[in-house]
Amino acid sequence: MLPGTLLWQTFLLVALLLTLALGAWSQIFRFMQEPARARDVAQMVVSVVNLTRTALINADIERRTDLLIELAALEGIRIYPAEASDELVALDDTRPLRLLMADVRRQLGKHTRFASKWKTLEGFWVSFRLHPEDEEDEYWVMLPPERIDNPDTFGWLGWAGGALMAALFGAYLIVARVSAPLRQLARAANMIGSGRTPPLIEESGAQEIAVVARAFNRMTGDLARNDADRALILAGVSHDLRTPLARLRLGIEMSGAPTSEVSAMVADIEEMDRIIGQFLDFGRGEPQQALQPLDLVRLVHEVTESYRLRGIEIRIHGADRLEAAVHVLPLRRALANLIDNALRYAGDDSPLDIDIGRRENFACIEVADRGPGIPEDQVERMRHPFTRLEAARSNTKGAGLGLAIVDRVMRAHHGRLDLLPRPGGGLRAILNLPDSAGTDTRYNSAA
Predict the structure, then answer these.
(1) In terms of domains, do 380 and 235 share one?
(2) Is 219 among the domain residues?
(3) Which helix (H) or strand (E) holds 181?
(4) Each residue's pLDDT tens digit, 361-385
(5) What is the torsional sign of CA 255, 259, 265, 269?
(6) Judgement on whether residues 228 and 305 belong to the same structural domain of the protein
(7) Is pTM beyond 0.90 here?
(8) Which spans are transmembrane here (predicted)?
(9) Cα–Cα distance between 216 and 154 in angstroms, integer?
(10) 3-class DSSP state of 43
């Protein structure tokens, strides 16, 4: 349920802390304010009661009724004689009212009573006697509720809410200032992961962030130099190893040795050349060129044509046309690696089946052979470089890089390589490419 970004996680934590702090301070403020507020209200109640008592005492008995009517009309103060049969409702048992009642009783006497409802009239009712010792001559006076309630409560809450919003806005700015360099680092790291060189990160801001940015820029420069050195080494390896192999092959073919021996030695040279090619492909890393729309059916036919000319039977099934956005050269190498892998372990006698189509959200190329297959518990291990199944597959030629190269190419396409058992025996190697531009239509079968 929590947001995933550091920005919002930190912001929500700061917001929670500020809200709790504001709530705590509001309770402290109320606790400290209530006694002072109770004293002020008690003084007002006592003043009203004393003025009312003085007015009643000094007024003629015949004029008391007119005086009570005048006080109710002008001041909103109602005064009624107290009777033993009065129906009363006590005040709420809250700390402010307890403080208020204590202060009023201290000034008017312990005989003072309070009520929130007298008969059917609601308000703040307080009793008083014209003469402290005369229990018979007692009155009830009702003050308007607005004189007792704190009129500044909601105004104070408004100011508190405004202060909280200002604090939250400042907290958001602070957290955003911290998370922005982290987002830049994440984008730069993603660019490095995809094989691109990111721009230099600005080495400014807080000292800790500047140190991290400086270290990241230094690392980026070192990686760029390592990539340049690797490309130079790969170019040298390709030239310095393949050129002698070509001369060696030419010398063998012109040596006049028996044909069977020449064929065996040429096959060994071709295997060495293929291993060198796999090392070079694996060393190149992620493809650098942009994705291009490509008809996968046409690609399969182009790649398999050279195998057909060698007399290898390859059956192609599926769509007449299926487009996807791909890195063309790496995908050609991946498909060729799967075909070579299938021929190496299944042999040239059994035909290969290649199926092209769309499955879920992927454009798929499946290469199926009738070799010994791969046990399910060994599938993930076979994606690692320099890995072979010696017990499962008798032919141990190669460097064990074929499937590792294919898996890397698929990851560069944001796709995946599936290695599944084939019904009846064999292996199904499936290239799953994101189907962002797929337009396949008709399905048929081509030999």
Answers:
(1) no
(2) yes
(3) helix 153-193
(4) 899 999 999 888 888 888 887 777 6
(5) positive
(6) no
(7) no
(8) 154-175
(9) 52
(10) helix
